[in-house]
Each structure stands twice: as C-alpha cells, then as structure tokens.
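Re-run with default settings, no changes from the original entry. Doing this only to confirm the output is reproducible before filing.
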Amino acid sequence: MKSDPHNERLIVRYLMGELPESEVMRLDEQSFTDDDFFRSLQAVENDLIDAYARGEMTLGEREQFERHFLTTPKRRERAAFAEALAAFRFKPPADNPAVAAQTGRISPWGAFINLFRVPRPALQFSLAAASAVLLLGVAWLMVETARLRARMAQIEQERAALNRSERELQARIDAQRADRVGLAEELRRAEQRRDQLERELAELKPSEPKFSLFVLSPGLRGGGPKVFTFPPGAQTVKLRVEFESDDYPSYHAELRTQAGDRQVWSSGNLHARAGGKINIIDLGLSANLFQPQGYLLNLKGVTANGESEDIHSYQFRVLKK
C-alpha cells in the first residue's frame, strides 16, 4: 500500500509535539480505532528513531524530538538500541571503492542483519539477546494495545448505555414534574370552583327568619286559643290584628298574660288600614317579651274625646322551639 506523504507529515508533527491539543486528542483516539493509521504511526516512529540514531536531524529537531518523543523509558530504550545499531553498522573496506559505493547506504534492516555477520561472538550474543528482548517487547506492546482497544470499546459501550439510561431517567423526571404541575393546577382550579359554589349556595340558601308573624283574627274571640311557635333565631314578633268595624279614629292595644292577668305591653294611638272587608292593625313586639304561656291581646277603640271602649280580646298561646 502506497503511503500518503501528507499523512506522514501530519504524523511527524504529531510525534514531534507540533500540533494543537485538539488535533493531538483526535489522533490519539484514531491510533486506537484505525488499524491502518496505527501501522503508519509505527512506521513513522521507526523512521524518526533511525534518523535520530544516525544523526540526520538538525540540532533543533533533535531537541524537539528529545523533549516531546523520548519521554518514556520504552521510547528511550528504542532510541538507544537504534543508536547501537547505527554504531555497529557494516562499513565496506576502504580499498574497494566499488563495494563502498554499493554499500555506503544500507537500510536499517540491512544494518541490523550485518550485525550478525560481524565475527564477534560476544557481540553477536548480546545483539541476539537484545533482539529477543525487543521482539518480546513488541509482542507485549501488540498484546497490550489489543487489550487497551478492547477495554476502550467496552468503556464506550458502557458509556453509551449510561447515556441512554440518563436520558430515559431525565425524561421520566420531566414527565413526573409535568404531572405534578398539572395536578397542582387542577387542584387549584377545583378549590376555586368549590369556593365559588359555596358562595353561590350561600346566596341561594334561604336565610333564617328574623321575625315571627302571628295573625289574630276576630273568629278567635270566645273560642280556644291559637298556638304560635317561635322559629329559631326570631328576634321580633309581628302581630297582625284583624277586626271588622272601623268606627274609631284611633285604637289602643294591651298585651297581658292569661294566667295572673299581668300587663306585658301596651301601645300608644294606633291607626287601622283597610284589608278588603276587614281592618288591620300591625304590631311589632320584641320576641323577648314572650315566654311559653298563654296571652290575651285586648284591642280598644279611642273616641274623639279620648275615651276607650273594648272592641276585641284575642287569646293565643306561644311555644318556643
């Protein structure tokens, strides 16, 4: 697969610490999720380490590389190993220019193979051990990377599930809040309606009578006493006295107890009004004057010269509830 030079330049800037933080975070995540990018990242890392080991970087690039890349022990070990390889890289004999021209620049892999062609058993053993350690480290790194990727995928799944649960819980909370608000508003309207109905009922409910009306007619004279009952709360007794003749300019009334003949109340001059074939005198007395007993109301006519003459005597009895 042909490499992308633009992508390589981006990776170099990423490894050298020349990108903004947002771009660094994006490439960090891509290195765990994109296998092709991860392989390109490894290849560029190897090239940078080789360039550092062979001294192909400028002083500023070396300082930048050491400050931003060689920040972990493993990266420093890789750089040291690359420098060792560069130091022992195979060099052709100086007396053979052709061979020197052909082998003056060899690949890092070729330099690594040439190490094992050097007739130095101790050095070969050391390099073989270092290679084994390096291979084990690479294998461990690959396993660890796979484990980290699996763990990241698991964390992403758990985070997505938690986000769904959070949204569902928030929706339930919002629904319950809306229900509470609706119920409170419904209760408030019900209370207002109840108060309105109570006011209307109070207006429509007939009030208790504050007075009691007793009608005394002429037919009661000589007969049995009529019985009147006070309703609860009555404060005034209205006596309507009916009689037939109207031969006097004014009248006088006396209220006496039937037992003991005690005067309870007497009026001043009264005037009658016509009520069809009969005449009517209306009297208003305090309810406190009456007790549960019998009474006599004597009606007298007053002549022009002030003399009184008996007209009617009305018997009645009062009961209180």
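Residues 211-320 form a domain with the Immunoglobulin-like fold (CATH 2.60.40.2550). Helices lie at 5-15, 21-33, 35-53, 59-68, 73-87, 97-103, 108-115, 121-204.
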